[in-house]
Amino acid sequence: MRKWLIFPIRSTGAARDRGWLDLDRAATVEVTSEAEGCEVEEALLTDGRGWRADAPGSHIIRLLFDRPQTIHLIRLVFREETFARTQEFVLRWLPYGAGSWKDVVRQQWNFSPPNTTEECEEYKFDLSSASALELSINPDISLGQVHASLHRLQLAVGIETLSPEQQHEHTEMRVTCRTFLSAILQETPQNRLCELSSKGLSKC
Question: Which CATH number does 2-203 carry?
C-alpha cells in the first residue's frame, strides 16, 4: 500500500466473505497524522490494530483509488475505552472527472465508557465511479485534547470498466494531485512520504 503523510489540519478472513475491497492493492492512502504502532494501514487491512493520530484535534484519512470504484457499502468501526466524548465524522467522495468533493454522511456519536465504547456503522450507497474517498474525524467537538482514532474502514465495491481515454485522464488527475502534495511535503520537513509494500513500511 502506498501512503502519504500530509500536512495536519489545524485545530480551532471475514472480510473476504463480505467481498471487501483489497485496499492495499487498490488505493493510495493519505493521512494527516499517525502514532507509532498505530499507523493508518492498521485500520485498512484485515485484522489490524486500528489507526490513531499522533496529535490531538481533527484529522483526515483519504483514499485515492488506482481506478474509479463503484462503492456499494462502507463500514466504519470506532472504539473508545478511556474518555467520555462526542465525536463527529464526515465522509466525502470525489466522483470521477469532478472538481469538488461531495458529502456522503455527517454523524455524531457519544462515547461513554465503560457502557458505550464502540460505534459500528454500515452505509449502503451507489457511489458510481468514485476516484477518491475522504474521512474527516473530529474526535471531540468540545475541543478537548483527544487523539482521533479509527479501528476499521472497509469498502464493498462493484466492477468499474474504463475506456483507454478515461484511464489516461484518471492517471493524469492522480499525477496532478501527487505533484501538489509533494510541494506541500517539501515545505514541511517534519512530514514524510511513506511507501508500504506487502513486506512492510519503508520511508523515502
Answer: 2.60.120.260
